[in-house]
Amino acid sequence: MKIIEFAIDKVPVNDKEFVLCLGFYDGLHLGHQKLIKTALKEGVPVGIMTFDVAPAVLLGKKENFSLTSTFDKVALLEKLCVKYFFLMQFDQSTLKVTKDEFINRVLKPLNPQKIYVGEDYKFGAYAEGDVADLKRFFDVQVVPIEKSDGLKIASNKIREFVEAGEMEKAASFLGRSYRICGLVVEGAGNGKKIGFPTANLALDYPYVFPGNGVYIGYAHFLNRKRKAIISVGTHPTINQLLKPIIEVYVINFEGSLYGKEICVDFVSKIREMIRFDSPEELTAQIIKDEQTAKNTLK
């Protein structure tokens, strides 16, 4: 897949045949996948155009907003056999681009043979542009909204699931487990003291932060997938923190992960984050959590 990064004042001029899918594609959920797979049926190369930053993050509405980083999107799009990934810089000046400017300054130079969008697609300043505006200049294919159990599959709903710790529901909309990636940084070492060393994760991207609790899932590092217990919270039993963190205990792993990049899949929440009366009680519970992970995860 070819990645083309550009700003509003340096839009590449295209003369190759391709169809273009528009949207932000946060999470690349089942609705997004349906749109892309429909476009692939055209039999010509497919391109995706999105922004490098979510508008909500740029506007400061929410710090942790994203379900997927740009890197995550690239990996997922390559699996879907997308040919071109157009990544447009999104900044304060881009916020002011009108629907007509977006068409004339961005879409016309890209010159797609056809455009694919979801039926609720909006664009331009204040989201004033819609499908009808696109159809004035392009051949447009509108893909119906995908639903699951009567609910619209949407990034906002998946964010709600993740923040509530409802990882199975998030996975049913994503088509895979919710994943975050980050760098392992040095922590207080409390887990190691009780026999369960954890990797403290500093997120690479403003991912949606899972709700407080203890989860089971998988840790991916050094080209391997391992069963893991993931703790999200302020570890209230030992040296309680003011802000929640993500700690990963990799089952049956010995060695240091400091400075390494790892990705974590959240499969299921197994319990709430609670305060135990002693480190011994906490240790006994972690042993139970580990057994749950071993019995549940494949």
Helix tally?
A: 10
Main CATH class of the largest domain = Alpha Beta
Low-confidence stretches: none
Write the CATH fold name of the largest domain: Rossmann fold
Helix and strand pattern: EEHEHHEHHEHEEEHHEHEEEEEH
Kindly report the name of the CATH homologous superfamily of the largest domain: HUPs
Q: How would you explain this protein's 3D organization?
A:
Helix 7 runs antiparallel to helix 8 (167-174). With 298 residues, this protein is of the alpha/beta class. The mean pLDDT is 92. The protein has 10 helices and 14 strands. The protein has 2 domains: 2-152, Rossmann fold, CATH 3.40.50.620; 177-296, Beta Barrel (Elongation Factor Tu (Ef-tu), domain 3).
Please write out the topology.
Layout: E1 2-6, E2 19-22, H1 30-40, E3 46-51, H2 55-58, H3 70-79, E4 84-88, H4 92-95, H5 99-110, E5 114-118, H6 131-135, E6 140-143, E7 147-148, E8 151-152, H7 155-163, H8 167-174, E9 178-185, H9 190-193, E10 199-203, E11 213-221, E12 224-233, E13 245-250, E14 261-271, H10 279-296
Helix pairs in contact: 7-8
Features of this protein?
Elongation Factor Tu (Ef-tu), domain 3; Rossmann fold; elongated; six-stranded antiparallel β-barrel; alpha/beta; 2 domains
Give me a quick take on this structure.
This protein is α/β, with parallel strands linked by helices.
